[in-house]
Write a structure and sequence with these properties.
Strand order of the largest sheet: 1-2-3-5-4-6
Helix content: 40-55%
Structural class: alpha+beta
Strand content: 15-25%
């Protein structure tokens, strides 16, 4: 059963650690995972403490994943990657159960943990273990916009091509952008923590790694934001992508359809796309494939001529 519960927003004071701990414990009991409560409580205490000490607001905690594989996520507004300190040398467990001792406690309380960094902040997550580890625990993994430069990877494609996207409905693109980012983050975490149970996640994560920057970041996203601020319903966009990458979008479309099928069967956390989202994404992503194969740009069809539109394509 997927866990799509709303996040708990936290303040800047020490009481937030207590609030988060109680909320996570109640959530794990509610989903029937009392076996993970002890490690979940220790882990979320440290995650929230680190967010308060080293992160930036807004700070929030969520329980995501599925009942079989629940995951704690603590998000904040900083893009600085967390650093795992040297593991403790003492053998006394009581020495570890204090706040501010770093993410080594999270590592020992988790089957997997890491940080996922986006341009708007980071999420530090963990999959609580059934027992606190006697050794150093799980190794943390940093993913996303590593380096804090706002670019994923940053390498220019070997065969760049300029794609023109005409009459893009700004609301549909904004919905696609949010869905893309959420699904990208979800499949990255599933692939790292539970690849054997979610083989589709690994395939999707590899494709997202190739397409994340050109499809959702930079000038195209900013242009849609400006169009929304001006009250426009449609706009023209352009994006530079490698021709080979663009042709690979065809595989991405197939994987999205497969993801929808899994979502309807509650095998994936993300919700299946609505018919409107499917229609837009089929056109939007299909334009990259068609133009990479030599086709001319085709505008998104509209039912009326009343849309407000601005052209940003020269």
């Amino acid at each position: 059963m997927p866990l799509n519960r709303p996040a708990l927003s936290l303040g800047a004071g020490p009481r937030s650690v207590q609030d988060a701990r109680r909320w996570v414990v109640a959530t794990f009991v509610d989903i029937g995972r009392s076996d993970l409560v002890e490690c979940a409580e220790m882990a979320v205490s440290e995650l929230v403490t680190n967010a308060l000490l080293h992160g930036a607001p807004p700070i929030r905690v969520r329980v995501r994943g599925t009942r079989e594989h629940p995951r704690i996520e603590v998000g904040d507004g900083s893009t600085e990657a967390p650093a795992l300190p040297a593991p403790p040398t003492g053998d006394d467990l009581d020495d570890l159960l204090t706040f501010g001792r770093g993410l080594s406690i999270v590592a020992r309380a988790s089957d997997a943990w890491g940080a996922d960094i986006e341009d708007e902040g980071k999420t530090v997550w963990c999959a609580p273990a059934a027992e606190f580890a006697e050794d150093d625990g799980a190794e943390g993994i940093i993913t996303g916009l590593v380096g804090g430069n706002g670019q994923q990877g940053g390498d220019q494609p070997a065969d760049p091509m300029r794609f023109r996207l005409l009459n893009v409905p700004v609301r549909d693109y904004a919905s696609f952008y949010n869905h893309f980012r959420e699904l990208r983050r979800e499949v990255r975490l599933l692939a790292m923590a539970h690849e054997a149970d979610y083989p589709l996640a690994k395939d999707l994560a590899d494709v997202f790694a190739q397409l994340g920057r050109p499809l959702t970041l930079g000038a195209m996203r900013d242009e849609v934001g400006r169009a929304q601020e001006e009250g426009l319903t449609h706009t023209d966009l352009e994006v530079v992508m490698g021709r080979t990458e663009a042709r690979g979008v065809r595989r991405f479309v197939e994987l999205l359809d497969l993801t929808d099928a899994f979502a309807r069967e509650e095998k994936m956390l993300s919700l299946a796309r609505t018919p409107e989202q499917h229609t837009f994404q089929t056109w939007f992503l299909g334009e990259f494939v068609r133009q990479a194969d030599g086709g001319e740009p085709t505008a998104f069809p509209t039912s009326t001529g009343s849309e407000q539109r601005r052209s940003s394509v020269s």
